[in-house]
Each structure stands twice: as structure tokens, then as C-alpha cells.
Design goal:
Layout (H helix, E strand, L loop, with lengths): L1 H27 L5 H16 L2 H14 L4 H13 L3 H14 L5 H19 L9 H13 L4 H24 L6 H24 L1
């Protein structure tokens, strides 16, 4: 399940970045604040280079100056997804939807971010930053012994439920989308995750 999701995000990466660049070009014509325009342009340069952390920093600085640009919220969400900062992506995209709820790409990207964040919570990933292999192995064993808390499970279900709704909304607005089949598979897997967890609760 996770492998498909990661492949799907990679497949969409080029299209998402292209959308970011197009939006930025259109929006800069309306921006009077030179500082905001420069920050957005610099963020796009970093996005093209794959430096998503730097892009995020510029976009956040841009929002600090002008939080009314839905494009900047979208761009920040896309950069955060690519940087695997899914909590930041969710917030940025939700904030953007409040400004422009009819921009349907928000719902696709938000769905991806929510599923990714839910998977991250359930995986309880180890910190791979340790250079010592013995420490890594100990951390791995310790992580395997841990059980996901009820609170984390509930949060993951909440995120996947919201993701299903957002992805369905995106498909409804783009019925002929080339990635419809892949998105429907993401929805199906999320539904199976929710159904599986519900069955476990009944057994208990």
C-alpha cells in the first residue's frame, strides 16, 4: 500500500511542480509587493532544483508578508509534500482552500498529504540519522515492540477519511483525469485501512 502511494506521488511530482510555476507566473502580475514577488520567484527556483526545504522557507516568508495569495499556500503545500513535511503540507493546503475553495488541485494535493501523514503516524518510523549501525538496530527492535496508540490510530483514520473525501471531490471535478485509476486505488486502500481497523476493534 505504501509503495503504491510513494510511486504515485513521484509520478505526479513533475506535474505538480509545473503547476506551481504556472501559477506563480500568473499571480506575480497582480503582486505589488516586490518582496513577496521576489520570495515567490526564488521559491520556484529552489523547487526546480529539488531544494524543497529552501523553497518552503521562502514561501513561508512570503505568506508572512501577504497571507491572502492562495497560490502561495498551494505552492507551500506542494513543496512540503515533496520535502515529506506532511503536517505542514496539510495546514498550508487547508489554509489555501479557505481562500479559494474552487481551486480543485488543492483537494488532490491535500488528499495525498493526509494519506502520507496517516501512513507516517502508523509506521512509527525510526530516526535514520544515527550513523551507528548498532544504535539503528536497537531503535528498530524497540520500534517493532511498540504498539501504535489508540490516539494515533484514531488520528490516522481521521486523516484517511478526510483524504477520501478530498480525492473524491477532485475526481468529481476531473472525471476524465489521466490519473483517475491511481487516485481511485488510493481511495480504495484508504477505505480498506479504515475497514480493517474497525474489524480489529470489533474483535477486541
Amino acid at each position: 500500500m505504501i509503495e503504491l502511494r510513494e510511486d504515485f506521488v513521484d509520478m505526479k511530482k513533475a506535474l505538480m511542480i509545473a503547476s506551481v510555476l504556472l501559477i506563480a507566473v500568473v499571480s506575480t502580475a497582480c503582486i505589488n509587493n516586490i518582496a513577496v514577488q521576489e520570495l515567490n520567484n526564488k521559491a520556484n527556483e529552489f523547487m526546480q532544483k529539488g531544494d524543497y526545504e529552501s523553497a518552503m522557507n521562502r514561501l513561508q516568508a512570503s505568506l508572512d508578508l501577504d497571507s491572502t495569495m492562495y497560490q502561495t499556500h498551494y505552492n507551500l503545500g506542494v513543496a512540503a509534500i515533496n520535502a515529506k513535511k506532511y503536517d505542514i503540507a496539510v495546514k498550508a493546503l487547508e489554509d489555501g482552500i479557505k481562500i479559494k475553495p474552487d481551486y480543485m488541485d488543492f483537494y488532490y494535493s491535500l488528499g495525498v498529504a493526509q494519506i502520507s501523514l496517516a501512513d507516517e503516524i502508523m509506521e512509527d518510523k525510526d530516526d535514520d540519522s544515527d550513523d551507528n549501525e548498532e544504535i539503528k538496530e536497537d531503535n528498530k527492535k524497540e520500534s517493532e515492540e511498540k504498539e501504535i496508540s489508540a490516539e494515533d490510530k484514531a488520528k490516522a483514520i481521521e486523516l484517511k477519511t478526510a483524504a477520501i473525501e478530498n480525492l473524491q471531490k477532485y475526481i468529481e471535478s476531473n472525471p476524465n483525469s489521466d490519473d483517475k485509476e491511481s487516485i481511485e486505488e488510493m481511495i480504495k486502500q484508504s477505505e480498506e485501512f479504515i475497514a480493517g481497523d474497525t474489524k480489529e476493534e470489533v474483535k477486541e
